Amino acid sequence: MGLPPVVVGLIFYLILSRSGPLGFVGILYTPWAMVIVQTALATPIIAALSHSSIIGIDDIVRKSAITLGATSSQAAVKVIAEARYGIMAAIIAGFGRAIAEVGAILIVGGNIAGYTRVMTTTIALETDKGNFELAIALGVVLIIIALCVNIILHWVQKRGVTV
Prior knowledge:
Layout: H1 5-16, H2 31-55, H3 59-67, H4 72-82, H5 84-99, H6 103-109, H7 119-129, H8 132-159
Helix pairs in contact: 1-2, 1-6, 2-5, 2-6, 3-4, 5-8, 7-8
């Protein structure tokens, strides 16, 4: 969960570079490389927090489902449904990690204007250039996007969607 993003970016750079084991794929400095790195950064957070949420569910839920005639897979679905709030929190945490990423994205994406430049790398670039107005404006847009996603997920939680 505490993987340093820049180190993950470096590892994937070495793997995806032409002399690396997956260099033949030719996806370094593409959006695909950026997605792969963000997935590698978010997955451990989502998996660990989801696992923690699922094992926190009382075993009586699974046993009750089986007693009432559920198969083991149906009982597992019921346990996951009971852990849905924790799983949703895990997804939000993973989203937060991905949306805030700069270091690994710069390394594998290259910050190519119109191709692999994303909001976070643009904010860093514009701040370095001293263009604080654009950097702040993009920061506000990024915060609004994050808030909207959180509001939507909160609404889904309050609605109590069940399986």
